[in-house]
Amino acid sequence: MGKPNPLDPQARIEELRRLINYHNYRYYVLDSPEISDAEYDRLFRELVELETAYPSLVTPDSPTQRVGAPPAEQFESHTHLLPMLSLNNAFDEGELRAFDARVKRALALPPEAPIEYVTELKIDGLAVSLTYENGVLVTGATRGDGFSGENVTNNIRTIRSIPLRIPQSLDAASDAPPVPRLMEVRGEVYMTHAEFQKVNEERIEAGEPAFANPRNAAAGSVRQLDPSITARRRLQIFVYGLGFVENGGFTTHWEVLETLRKWGFRVSDHRRLCPSIEEALQFIREWESKREELDYDIDGVVVKVNSLALQAELGQVSRSPRWAIAYKYPPDQATTVIREIRVQVGRTGALTPVAIMDPVPLGGVTVSRATLHNEDEIARKDVRVGDTVVIQRAGEVIPEVVRVVLEKRPPGTEPFKMPTHCPVCGSAVERPEGEAVARCTGIACPAQLRERIRHFASRDAMDIEGLGTALVEQLVETGLVKDPGDLYFLKDRRSELVSLERMGEKSADNLLKAIEDSKNRSLDRLIFALGIRHVGSTVARALAERFRSLDALANASVEEIAEIPGVGSVIASSVHTFFQQPSNKAVIEKLRAAGVKMVMEEAPEVGERPFEGKTFVFTGTLASMTRSEAERLVAQLGGHAASSVSKNTDYVVAGENPGSKLTKAQQLGITILTEEEFKRMAGIQ
């Protein structure tokens, strides 16, 4: 293929889409990237810029549209072209052999006749159907009742291992057959263990209940009304077959799987073509012991007759096929006794109760701890110290208490109560109304000190250059820094600072200068740096503009704080509680003694205010400044920076990897600026 004419935007857009789809396939399906992240980002950014300049050329199957839809009010119903059948289950080897015998009887075959089966791992996720017309994804739907499900197309598009358009071949050596005009691809959306842990940490930080297991997390993510939330959760998929297909021409299920792989779909390598049911059983035995090695959940193995002709002859009964069965592994559960309920404090201040139990073998390991999630979950299950409980591996990752064996409860047990003060630092524990998680409010709490220091020094806060994660770890471990205020007294301990690993004289002096320079940051950045719950950079700016000094804010009532537009009672309560804590007051006094500026300077006179009366919204990542810096610049030049796009928005500034705000701006006909255009308007280029 020749290089497209750079003066022909449509040709270049099509070439960029082809390249990006190919590299998505290499990265997300084959796990074998050919280019660096930076080179991929360059291609994606160029496509975004071209589509922004030529919105009429944007198509639903463009890679930029994976997170390009506004939130839905509700999901519409979608009727499957061919019903998504449910499988009957087998729970032991005898039941699986009985299935084999039923198949042979239905086909009028003797008991010794061989039947070829395909065995596949049964992914514990959410079943979905993907409808393609002329190779383009047009609908993604949940299984629902088997006949109709929810249309979640915009969310399905965010899963990068799902092709939005099926090329005839992504591999020049591929012998893939032509893509049918119309077909339904069936698959299972799932979440890896690492992503499950990350999502739950984020939910706990936001005061939301944790997901019980990766399957629930995957299902909840696919059913988000806002596709951008789905996109952030990095879901994966394995496809396992076809529903309706127009003129498919396939003869075996194995051939279907191989063809789907050639078409660019993600098909599990953990499958086997078995000449008999005994071979299928061997596969099942192997994976019962090996499933702990996977980074996702399986709850069994699916066994299918390989021949599609035999499948058609066998047919179905009720809503289940006669030609397939799911062998279910027994759940990993055990019984033990809780000796203590210990409350741990996480890096974000979240308090999590943990059951300390008599050690018991479970899923190949010995466990002595289990998560109890939060106070509400303990109350719902009525878990008490001394109880005999059934535990299981939640999503094959973290042990959890399933239920209490009440008939074994000893007399005199007491219901659990969450502590009112942090077990680590003694600061007050706060649980805002409507939230499931209780939190420590202390800024100097050792349990969350590393995260507090990193946030305090971050670019949008005090912007202390050179104070990275590795150095923060050393400063905390050596005791040089016990709270953010200690940073400003490191100059008195320079010799100890120099002796740290990979520090040295010059690096120490550069760090001390950066710390000294940070004393003059604006009041809103200091407020943001303190890490007050619910206070982001926008709220911090509103607080600074209203109270003009840290002392005035610290002495304000909940009612006074709540009067600020966009703040409200929840944030106001969090701010007020923060400034009442003795440990937080001590840190603020230390900052004051160090000379950190705590008042808001009057804005200097400016000759021109080019953004007067204009509203800007930023989306994506800016290259030369943070979003907070850009929003401050807008305010300095007389404009207003909003967080969402509306008909009152004048400009949307699109950085790298813009989200749904860009699409909404295009729909409303709002002027879209690149970062360079914005900077020229601001007069800084």
Overview of this protein structure:
- With 685 residues, the chain is α+β, with helices and mostly antiparallel strands.
- It has 5 domains: 9-58, Helix Hairpins; 89-328, D-amino Acid Aminotransferase, Chain A, domain 1 (2-Layer Sandwich), CATH 3.30.470; 333-408, OB fold (Dihydrolipoamide Acetyltransferase, E2P) (Beta Barrel), CATH 2.40.50.140; 446-594, DNA polymerase, domain 1 (Orthogonal Bundle); 615-682, 3-Layer(aba) Sandwich (Rossmann fold), CATH 3.40.50.10190.
- Helix content is 35%, strand content 20%.
- The chain has 24 helices and 24 strands.
- The strands form 6 sheets. Strands 14, 15, 16, 17, 18, 19 and 20 form a 7-stranded antiparallel beta sheet that branches.
- Helix 1 packs antiparallel against helix 2 (37-53), helix 12 (449-457) crosses helix 13 (469-477) and helix 16 crosses helix 17 (537-547).
- The longest helix has 21 residues, at 9-29.
- The model is unreliable at 1-5 and 169-173 (pLDDT under 50).
